[in-house]
Amino acid sequence: MIRVLVVGDQSPGSDELKVIAELLDQKGHVTAVTSKLDGHSTQINGGFPDLILATTDIDTHLVSVKNNAYLSDTPVVAIVDNLDLADVLLKQGAYDLVERPINPILLVKRIENCAKSLELAAQYDDAKKQMREMTMFDSLTELLNRRYFLSQALRELARALRFGHSYSMIIVEPDNFKQINDEKGSDAGDDVLKHLANICADMARQIDIVGRFSGSEFVICCAETGSEGARVVADRILEKVEKSVIPTPLGAVEYSVSVGVSELGPLEMDISPLLKRVDVALAVSKDRGGDQVSVELIPADTDTDGV
């Protein structure tokens, strides 16, 4: 079913629009007839048309469609007396042309082919969007994947360096994750990762960037804040996890996390040293038994006081 808006001359004695509308109605399509493209005349059953069929003043209607925010992407099929102006009308934006006298079978076929082309184009756009999302997001947690996270973190780093803003990182990992997998199964392990991903996303600030960095590690880029501000976010994550229980077929899972925090040094121009420091801080939290936040300070040789 296609929603077709037929636009053209509705003066007395002109029944072409009526004949076209009846023909399309018989084929199961929904039609409306109007003499101009403005206001509610563009609505069909409360929605906008899938296709516009223009029978008169075609160049004027093409301009109206182009300038209408709701119709600018709607294809226009023009019914013409001859094809002498075909090139001109196609350049002006016509999707297809049908020559008079109208062949009913040909007209319906052209309209249905147009609709099919639009459907295929929409499917192609959806497929491209899905492929693009696959290159950006982790399929399990729906957070940014490592590659895209790093690209966004580097963009934020460039902004921080340009404007002299603070810049910090947080890395979070479940404690004893292998034990959870072994005792409760891999599905329970996946549930833990999804649960922790949601907590990281919820506890992070709106301007922060959150991603899945490796198998069980999650990382948060904290824009415009130093390690003290990042520590606040890390503590919120720790507290939220401590109060959580995840039901699984093999019993409830309670888990804890280890968290590492650090900030960009004043002379650093890359995130590599920062990522190494948060990794060290994470290791410290784990070595101390987990369920805690550790902050790795900036080495003295990267501080401006030593210059």
Structural descriptors:
five-stranded mixed sheet, alpha/beta, 2 domains, Alpha-Beta Plaits, elongated, five-stranded parallel sheet, single chain, 9 helices, Rossmann fold, 307 residues
CATH architecture of the largest domain: 2-Layer Sandwich
User: How many structural units, i.e. domains?
Assistant: 2
CATH superfamily of the largest domain: Reverse transcriptase/Diguanylate cyclase domain
Tell me, what's the shape?
elongated
Low-confidence stretches: none
Structural topology:
Blueprint: E1 3-7, H1 16-26, E2 30-34, E3 51-54, H2 58-67, E4 76-80, H3 86-92, E5 96-99, H4 104-134, H5 146-163, E6 167-174, H6 177-184, H7 186-203, E7 209-212, E8 218-223, H8 227-242, E9 257-263, H9 272-287, E10 292-295
Parallel strand pairs: 1-2, 1-3, 3-4, 4-5, 9-10
Antiparallel strand pairs: 6-8, 6-9, 7-8
Structure characterization notes:
With 307 residues, the chain is of the alpha/beta class. It has 2 domains: 3-131, Response regulator (Rossmann fold, 3-Layer(aba) Sandwich); 146-306, Alpha-Beta Plaits (2-Layer Sandwich). Helix content is 44%, strand content 17%. The protein contains 9 helices and 10 strands. Strands 2-1-3-4-5 form a 5-stranded parallel beta sheet, with helices on both faces. The protein has a 5-stranded mixed beta sheet with strand order 7-8-6-9-10, with helices on both faces. Strand 9 (257-263), helix 9 (272-287) and strand 10 form a beta-alpha-beta unit. Helix 6 packs across helix 7 (186-203) and helix 7 (186-203) crosses helix 8. The longest helix has 31 residues, at 104-134. The protein is elongated and about 85 Å long. The model has no long low-confidence stretch (mean pLDDT 87).
